[in-house]
Amino acid sequence: MWAIVLLVLSNVFMTFAWYGHLKFRSSPLWIVILASWGIAFFEYCLQVPANRMGYGQFNGAQLKIIQEVITLAIFCLFSVFYLKEPLKWNYILGFGLIVLAVFVVFRE
Q1: Residue 87: band (very low, low, confident or very high) from pLDDT cuts 50, 70, 90
Q2: At a CB cut-off of 8 Å and minimum separation 6, what does 7 contact?
Q3: Are 75 and 22 in contact, with CB atoms under 8 Å apart?
Q4: If 3 and its partner were Cys, which of 8, 16, 54, 66 is the partner (CB 3.0–4.6 Å)?
Q5: pLDDT digit string (tens) for 49-82?
Q6: What is the DSSP string of 29-86?
Q7: CA distance 107 to 99
Q8: 9-18, 85-94, 99-108: which has the minimum mean pLDDT?
Q9: Calpha distance 47→56 (Å, rounded)
Q10: Is the pLDDT assigned to residue 108 strictly greater than 80?
Q11: pTM, entire model
């Protein structure tokens, strides 16, 4: 359970590191890169322990697919609430297909 919580928190940091700067397009690129690296540091401080804790309970492929689903869920929220972009039907369908991938990966 803690692995999942840490994965969610790490994804919040990484989403801001990768996409948060899009609201500040007039900022110099070198500042954006340094700020993104600074934010990503905290993502790694959560991501690495999450994978260590989760490995054993989940295998590597399962951890990765969990990570991808969390990433997309966080990004959907980020996109709607921070970037003010709408979720379109094809995004939701694509997300649903990735959720289907979770079912396939966890199937024995």
Answers
A1: very high
A2: 46, 47, 50, 54, 66, 67, 70
A3: no
A4: 54
A5: 999 999 999 999 999 989 989 999 999 999 999 9
A6: HHHHHHHHHHHHHHHHHHHHHHHHHHBTTB-HHHHHHHHHHHHHHHHHHHHHHTS--P
A7: 13
A8: 99-108
A9: 16
A10: no
A11: 0.86
Backbone angles phi, psi at 99, to 5 degrees: -65, -35
**In Å, how far from its chain's centre is CA 91?**
15
Cα(50)–Cα(33) distance, integer angstroms? 25
Q: How would you classify residue 84: left for phi > 0, otherwise alpha for psi between -120 and 50, otherwise beta?
A: left
| Partners of 55 in beta bridges | 58
In 3D space, the residue among 38, 36, 49 whose CA is nearest the CA of residue 7 turns out to be 49
Beta bridge partners, 58, equal: 55
Tell me the two tokens of residue 55: 């490995």
